[in-house]
Amino acid sequence: MIPAAPAGYKSGFAGIIGRPNVGKSTLMNQLVGQKIAITSPVAQTTRNRLRGILTTEEAQIIFVDTPGIHKPHHQLGKVLVHNAQLAIHSVDVLLFVVDASVPAGGGDRYIVDLLVNTQTPVILGLNKSDQQPPESQAQLDNTYTQLIEAKQWPIVKFSALTGEGVEALQQILIQHLEPGPYYYPPDLVTDQPERFIMGELIREQILLLTREEIPHSVAIAIDIVEEAPTITRVLATINVERDSQKGIVIGKGGSMLKEIGTAARQQIQKLIDGKVHLELFVKVQPKWRQSRTRLAELGYRVEE
Ligand SMILES: Nc1nc2c(ncn2[C@@H]2O[C@H](COP(=O)(O)OP(=O)(O)OP(=O)(O)O)[C@@H](O)[C@H]2O)c(=O)[nH]1
Ligand SMILES: [Mg+2]
């Protein structure tokens, strides 16, 4: 049961969009105060539209984290970008996040062009303020002001990593919302089931621990979650595309798989706040990124 919101309460959906790696997921975690989205230095970390819910005394904001928008090179990329673009038209306000520690580039320009015809209000978010060298701050910021030119988008600067400026961002977002109900129970922070986040936490460790072509070729399936009184047993399959990748993920004498498993288990324990026994299997699924059926089986569906 969702309780009725107090009189004058505001609520709505805020889409977080931007090119890959600018810090969209880090920002969503910071806003909701909990790690629900995985983050990594590898571009195209986020693959699903993921909702994060922030409930305060005056408003409930549902953040929609999206995959980074880029020029797709395979079927998976196409599905990701399609789903990210859907967010543009289905939210009340858009937060267009950029990496202000580097000058604006073609990837940002591409997104500004996508937003030309949208009726949804847009806020430009200059992220990674902590990483701007003090002497070139103004210069860097300028490249973004020029990028959006005559558009009257409010500009907010913050660091998703340290949290600096995020409170001010939250206030501006609330100003853009209309009066409305609780869409989710006030104590919920995400719309995703625990199983999904477990798979993501395993994928995050693979992104962080393996290199080269592995990160993009991997998909996780959670096969079994068995809750016993003192421990939760989780069985998961790591799908890769080639035998050579299977070899890398397993590592010498199983060392890499062990490292992935240990780190992921610690993250999953934090998530469920209890002891976890994690068993990982590695399976070769040739060309899963090219096949619509395989993509759907692994949870990457074209949304409508
Ligand atoms: N210094 C600094 N690093 C940040 C900040 N925000 C994010 N990062 C780092 O930038 C990298 C990418 O962050 P993500 O949150 O995964 O970026 P994303 O936009 O969700 O990326 P995709 O899901 O691939 O589109 C990670 O290594 C983060 O730790 C910030 O404010 N300051
Ligand atoms: Mg992300």
What does this molecule look like?
The protein is α/β, with parallel strands linked by helices and 304 residues long. The protein folds into 2 domains: 10-179, Rossmann fold; 194-297, GMP Synthetase, Chain A, domain 3. Helices cover 34% and strands 22% of the residues. It contains 9 helices and 10 strands. Strands 1, 2, 3, 4, 5, 6 and 7 form a 7-stranded mixed beta sheet that branches. A 3-stranded mixed beta sheet has the order 8-9-10. α3 links the parallel β4 and β5. The radius of gyration is 20 Å and the shape is globular. Guanosine-5'-triphosphate binds at residues 18, 20-26, 39-41, 43-46, 67-68, 127-128, 130-131, 159-161.
Number of domains: 2
- CATH-derived architecture of the largest domain: 3-Layer(aba) Sandwich
CATH class placement of the largest domain? Alpha Beta
Share of β-strand residues: 15-25%
Number of strands: 10
What is the helix fraction of residues, given as a range?
25-40%
**Computed structural class:** alpha/beta
Kindly report the average pLDDT value: 93
* Gap from first CA to last CA: 27 Å
In CATH, the homologous superfamily of the largest domain goes by the name P-loop containing nucleotide triphosphate hydrolases
CATH-defined fold name of the largest domain = Rossmann fold
- Please give the radius of gyration in angstroms: 20 Å
Oligomeric state of the chains present here: single chain
Described by the principal axes of the CA atoms, the overall outline is: globular
